[in-house]
Specification:
130 residues, alpha+beta, four-stranded mixed β-sheet, 45% helix, globular
Length: 130
């Protein structure tokens, strides 16, 4: 998603490791953009299934509405030409270390789409911890 929003940058062939993620050029550019879906995915840790605007901090945890993450997933799907409904309803095997960057991006979007839909359908909060 960060590369789709910044086409002047060339995405890596292989998936980013957790060590290189924080130093990735597209991540660095995107994390500072107001309204970036990356901010919703990376910084908000507790999502509530009730509508409200913005986010707030509770202790050291960023809290936001589930809609915030849902809009981010929708934007990623739109940018990458994924069908969100099909993606959320599909069954997908976890990618391994040999997966390409595109395969990992598709799988990650699949997981987030499923999480958002499950939380929405069950009216449950969602806690992200990674």
């Amino acid at each position: 998603m960060a590369y789709a929003r910044n086409p002047h940058l060339t995405p890596p062939v292989k998936a980013l490791s957790s060590d290189s993620f924080d130093a990735d050029p597209a991540i660095l550019v995107e994390q500072d953009k107001p309204g970036s879906p990356l901010v919703a995915i990376l910084s908000v840790r507790f999502l509530l299934p009730i509508p409200f605007s913005g986010t707030f901090t509770l202790g050291n945890i960023e809290v936001g509405p589930l809609d915030y993450l849902e809009r981010a997933v929708d934007e990623v799907c739109s940018l990458c030409s994924y069908d969100r409904m099909k993606l959320a309803q599909s069954s997908m095997d976890q990618v391994d270390d040999s997966a390409t960057f595109s395969e990992v991006a598709l799988y990650g979007t699949h997981i987030f789409a499923k999480l958002v839909d499950e939380a929405r359908n069950r009216n449950l909060p969602l806690i992200l911890d990674y």
